[in-house]
Design brief:
mainly beta; OB fold (Dihydrolipoamide Acetyltransferase, E2P); 3-stranded antiparallel sheet; 8 strands; globular
């Protein structure tokens, strides 16, 4: 593969021991959030311990997939050749109904239509045989 061919491919996540359950959940149409059994903190980004109390007693539970746009930005200039066909697109910071915030992109709507506090719902974007990305669409 040449360097130019590589630059036209979008990077994909590389699941590891901490994130494998999260990525498997997305493949099966579920957004899994970690819940701490000690302090009941809910966290989005998967890791081995609770960010609130440090406990390793975490369990994965399905989330509703619903949330509100907390913040957003519309990208007009592609960050690289692989994203050129996507511009303009909206990058969202979504406050999930369960509390954590998650960054992703909007699909199915014009980026000009995004507003603060807009209701959104999760959409599952299967980009390879092994990776499904979480995206959001207007609810």
């Amino acid at each position: 593969m040449t360097v130019s061919e590589d630059s036209t491919r979008k990077p994909l996540p590389a699941p590891d021991a901490d994130t494998a359950a999260f990525w498997r959940g997305l493949q099966h149409g579920k957004l899994l959030l970690q819940h701490c059994r000690q302090c009941h903190h809910v966290q989005y980004y998967q890791q081995a311990t609770c960010r609130e109390c440090g406990s390793d007693e975490l369990e994965h539970r399905p989330a509703t997939g619903r949330g509100k746009v907390h913040s957003f930005s519309v990208v007009h200039r592609a960050p690289g050749p692989a994203f050129k066909a996507d511009v303009p697109y909206a990058v969202l910071l979504v406050e999930l109904a369960e509390g954590p915030r998650m960054i992703s992109t909007l699909i199915g709507s014009d980026p000009k239509d995004v507003t603060f506090d807009m209701d959104v719902e999760l959409a599952f974007d299967q980009v390879s045989d092994h990776i499904t990305l979480p995206r959001f669409r207007k609810a």
